Amino acid sequence: MTVEAALGLAGLTVVTVLLIAGLTALTSQLRCTDAAREAARLLARGQPHEAAAAVHQIAPPGANLTFEHVGDTITVKVTALPAGGLLPAVHLNATAYAVAEPGTEAANAPG
Fold it and tell me: Where are the domains of the chain?
């Protein structure tokens, strides 16, 4: 009976750790998506410094912001590792698109 209980507890521990890791990855992905959307919106308004600050505040720690400006279209990509890199095989990516508002620096900048 003791061996069965030990194996059951070990299995339950593994399942619990996997559930926590999955929830961490899911919430980190949602944070990356929110950060990408907010950065795209701010870049479309011509506010690049605020966009970087928003990603730093919203996305998981260590997230990277990259964007491409072609014509009046802005593509934003936020990448991160969930749980500070504790899940090395998981890489999070979120992409958002926006059109630069007329009269902003983003709309007038060369593509």
Answer: 2-99
